[in-house]
Amino acid sequence: QLQLVESGGGLVQPGGSLRLSCAASGFSLDYHAIGWFRQAPGKEREGVSCISHSGGSTKYADSVKGRFTISRDNADNTMYLQMNSLKPEDTAVYYCAATKRLAWLIPSGYDHWGQGTQVTVSS
Hints:
mainly beta, seven-stranded mixed β-sheet, four-stranded antiparallel β-sheet
């Protein structure tokens, strides 16, 4: 069974931080690039960040540059998204995804998806 499970979402005040985790089971992330995506109500799913299979290359959406950091721990088969200086516009369901293709931040390029974790930035 190929599965990705996100965790770490929740309610946070503007300016706060959250760290999202994505654990893979049933397959290894070693040969996959991985990405984080988000979808707010009424909006299309958008790419937030991605990281190469080795962790050597990363990309970020302009809206999160300088605030979010993507990382991975292949030994633990887990990926992370550290989110700092959160803004209300960051509110969305966040999804992790994996692909063996060169997909960058294009959702359609990813093969495996988690169920999502809600991040709400409000106060």
